[in-house]
Amino acid sequence: MRSLIFCLFAAAWLTAVVAPASGAEIRDATPEELLRVGTSIILEGKIEAGDYDKLLKLIDVNCGYEFKGMPACADGIYLASPGGDVIEAMKIGRLVRKLRLETRVPSDLPPRYRQKAEAILKDPKSNFMCASACFFVFVAGINREGGEGGIYPPILGIHRPYFSDVELKRLSGNQVIASSGQMRTLVRDYLKEMGVLAKYADLMFSTPKEQVRFLNDEDFESDFEGYIPELRDWLEAKCNSLTDIEKSVEKVIEGKKRHREVLTESEERMNRMLSEKHIQQGECHAKVLSKLREDAWRQFHGH
Questions:
Q1: Residue 45 in contact with residue 25, Cβ under 8 Å?
Q2: The CATH number of domain 2-226 is 3.90.226
Q3: Are 119 and 127 spatial neighbours (Cβ–Cβ below 8 Å)?
Q4: SS3 26
Q5: 160 pLDDT band (50/70/90 cuts)?
């Protein structure tokens, strides 16, 4: 029975949007696309069986090239997908977490910016989102952001997993009940593994299959955006050189900026100094995270 359930899961997470049958397109971002989406790999389209292997092959090709004696591994994935195969999405998600990759998703941009963002996709009408099974890949990132600079809210949606009519016809009522219960357990265990609050499993299963519940900006900022908590503390210890006084002054300055208040001359000087420190902090983040990914890739392959 268990093998039947898992075979069904592989075809069960469907979306209302029909995508090509060949699975997702997984490719390297061009230099221009890298500047726009912030990651070195783009995944577009419906996730299907075999996409894990395509992604791993691309990552291995990238990491196979060395720069100054170290592998130049991929840093993350831009996810533009309406959903697909939940088992494959979880498999990809676990790879993303093991290799310490970041994840980004399309953002709800104003029309004048959205057209340029959509231009990098082959089918933006269907794929300019991360919904359904795509959510499982997104939450696996060690740093999770909206794409296109992360200024605008992400287009990130969830809904209840369900079986296709074809699969339902093949099952008895008892098999459907057993399979649905196993699906709930599978989803909850995976989200817990990725550090996602339990409320999102509840929201997922309470959203009808015909609908998509898109996360609001407040929930995204509080529960997903940025580095996962355990890594955030590590990066803080490694790279943050701000003193407690500087952190306090920065909060005051940021508050005045938000309210469009004029900074004093001394605050302007402090703001410039803090900006320089943040640039150094960003360079430190890039360096230690690159080493983290390199070590993770080597460990994954037993090097």
A1: yes
A2: yes
A3: no
A4: strand
A5: confident
Taking only the tens place, the pLDDT of each residue in 242-266 is 888 888 888 888 888 878 888 898 8
Boundaries of every domain in the chain = 2-226, 231-300
Sign of CA dihedral 122, 119, 124, 38: positive
Position 10 scores a pLDDT of 38
Both tokens assigned to 200 = 């999102």
**Strands (DSSP E) along 132-199, which ranges?**
143-146, 156-158
CB 62 within 8 A of CB 74: yes
Of 28-42, 148-162, 205-219, 289-303, the poorest mean pLDDT is in: 148-162
How far, in Å, CA of 140 to CA of 193, rounded?
9
- Alpha-carbon distance 50 to 55, whole Å? 9
For residues 128 and 214, give the distance between their C-alpha atoms in angstroms, rounded to a whole number.
13
For the record, the structure tokens of 45 come out as 């389209």
